[in-house]
Amino acid sequence: MKKSASVSAGDIDNDGDIDIIVANGRHWPEYNKVFYNSGHGIFTVSKLLDHIAETSYATELADFDGDGDLDVAVGNDMAPNALYLNDGKGNFIRADHFGNPYSPTRNLKTADIDSDGDIDILITNRGKENEICLNNGKGKFTETVYFGTKDDSTIDVEVADINIDGKQDLILANRDGQQNYIYLNDGGLHFNQKIPFGNGTDETRSVGVADIDQDGYPDIITANIEEPNVIYFGSKEINYGRKMIFDPASDPSYSLDLGDIDGNGSIDIVVANSGSPNKVFLNFNKGASWKEISLSDEELHTYDIILADLNKDNRPDIIESNSDAINYYYRNKGVGN
């Protein structure tokens, strides 16, 4: 079984359906894989992304070179991070590396952080300074900007306009008893002003941003290791003092994703756990109440979980990336099924 750590979904072969990239290895070199969708959520064709075994923790899909198709970025632990360019038909060529070649990379996030029209890559490193790799518009990442501190144990980062000033801010999920922070963007890619959230010693592994209570202010959702998972509600003052525990269990939560799973117009949450069942939390009454559903009885070691519509029925399905187990996806049958 592969030590799968990350999954990304998108139409890589331009045939109108959603395909899947899986990053494998973590600390141990393994091969990353591409899974092609038949059009009905069936993945009978797969191949290696590369014939090089990688210590991969993260993968993300985005059009890095601006040619209209989805390319692949892979984040590796203590090895060069790799960029693969798409020929337009879902075939990938290893093009370049990005970021510090020997960092303890744990996650990647793609965003146009400098608002110049191309997709940049943010790298989170556990125990080392985090990086923003700036795209020159052609899929080359020759300029790096750093964020956080030199000894941050950052596992995840979300990009969102927290203070609603038109600039993309950074929301960090830190481990090892470190404070979680929001870093505000001054418009020049300087992130000197920071705002804490959480209790200061959370073991946060994943973070998301959405307006859960529909009050016009972005909220922060956290997945924590062996402590409850919490929503921190935004406000005009940007202090994130108001909070709600949506998942009271103290499971080792490794990942989360957000979307309207039941089609009622509100943002729901899926949570991946390690050694405990993965769960869905359905949002009712603008975050005032939640319905908890276990995806299965299996206690898998799920490192990543995402939402994507795999069978083109306009409902988000759930995809897991499991270590030392089969990777599963769950079809969304809709309300009442």
UniProtKB/TrEMBL annotation:
Renumbered to this chain, the signal peptide range is: none
Give the record's keywords alphabetically: Signal
Q: Which InterPro entries match?
A: FG-GAP, Integrin_alpha_N
In its keyword annotation, does this UniProt entry include Signal? Answer: yes
* Any single Pfam family the record assigns to this protein: FG-GAP_3
Which PANTHER family does the entry link to? PROPROTEIN CONVERTASE P (PTHR44103)
Q: What is this protein called?
A: VCBS repeat-containing protein
Organism (species) = Zhouia amylolytica AD3
Lineage, opening ranks: Bacteria, Pseudomonadati, Bacteroidota, Flavobacteriia, Flavobacteriales
